[in-house]
Amino acid sequence: MISKCLAMVFLATASMTGAASAQTATNQVDSTTSATTHRVGEWRASKLAGVNVYNEANEKIGDINEVILDRSGKVANVILGVGGVLGLGEHYVAVPFDKLKWVDQPATSATASTTSAPVNPPATTSAPDGATRTTTGAATTTTTTTTTIPSKSWYPDRVVLNATKDELKAMPEFKY
Q1: What is the pLDDT of residues 36-84, one digit of tens each?
Q2: Alpha-carbon distance 80 to 171, whole Å?
Q3: CATH number for position 146
Q4: What is the total count of domains within the chain?
C-alpha cells in the first residue's frame, strides 16, 4: 500500500516537472525586446486615473476614472467620471481611447499685471521767481508673465475631449 502511494507521488511529481519544463521552454521572453527603462511617450496606467479632462474651450469636464484594456493589451476605452463631488454622485461614461487628445505639455497660464510707473524721470525746471518745480509724467505699463509647470514624464498633464459636460452626462452610464 505504501509503495503504491509512493509510486503515485513519484508519477505526479514527474508529470508536473515535465509540464513545467515544457511550458518554460515555449513561454520564454525574448530579452532583446523586454523593456528595462521608461521610454518617452509611455505612461503608467496607474497614473492615468485622476488626470483631468478638458474640452476645447479649456473647461474641466471630468477626470479619468479607469482604463479598460482588451485581451491583447490594447486600450479599448477610458472611463470618465463626470459631475459629482469628491467621487460621490459621479456619472461614469466610456469614451474610446482614440477620441481623446493626450497633452504632454503642462498648461501655461498668462497673467497680466498693470502698474503705474514713470516713463521719464521727474523733470526739474527753474521758475522766473527762483522757485524750483518738479514735473512728473506717469504711464501705465502692462507686463505678461507665463508660468510653466515642470513636465510629469510618467503620465500626461491633461486630456482634451471635444464634448461638453452636459453631453457627457447625457451619455449612457458605464456599469462595472
Answers
A1: 887 777 788 888 999 999 999 999 999 999 999 999 999 999 999 998 7
A2: 11
A3: 2.30.30.240
A4: 1
Task: Answer yes or no: is 47 within a domain.
Answer: yes
> Is the whole model's pTM more than 0.70, yes or no?
no
Q: Are strands 52-54 and 158-160 parallel, antiparallel or unpaired?
A: parallel
Dihedral in degrees, nearest 10, Cα atoms 63, 98, 73, 174: 50
Domain that holds residue 156: 41-124+137-176
Half-sphere exposure of 63 (CA within 13 A, CB side): 14
Q: Is residue 131 situated within a structural domain?
A: no
Q: What is the DSSP letter of 47?
A: H
Q: Is 99 a domain residue?
A: yes
Helix (H) or strand (E) holding 52: strand 52-54
DSSP-assigned states of every residue in 65-134: EEEEE-TTS-EEEEEEEES-BTTBT-EEEEEEGGG-EEE-SPPEEEEEEEEEEESSPPEEEE-TTS-EEE
Assess if residue 60 is contained within a domain: yes
Nearest-CA neighbor of 64 among 76, 80, 88?
80
Closest CA to 48 of 176, 159, 149, 150: 159
